[in-house]
User: Fold this.
Amino acid sequence: MGQNGLNPQHLSPEAGQGDPPIEVVYDDECPVCRSYCTRISLNNPERELVLIDARKGGALM
Assistant:
């Protein structure tokens, strides 16, 4: 695990197009959560980022 709590292997620049998307469950009403999601999105443009609002529920909840 990296210092940000994510597995750095999944966030490496060497990640290929066949890698699964990064799924992040977050609180859309939290400014820190939104900022974090923006940061990981910008740091990993080659990976699809799927944002799941914890307040709306979903399959992962």
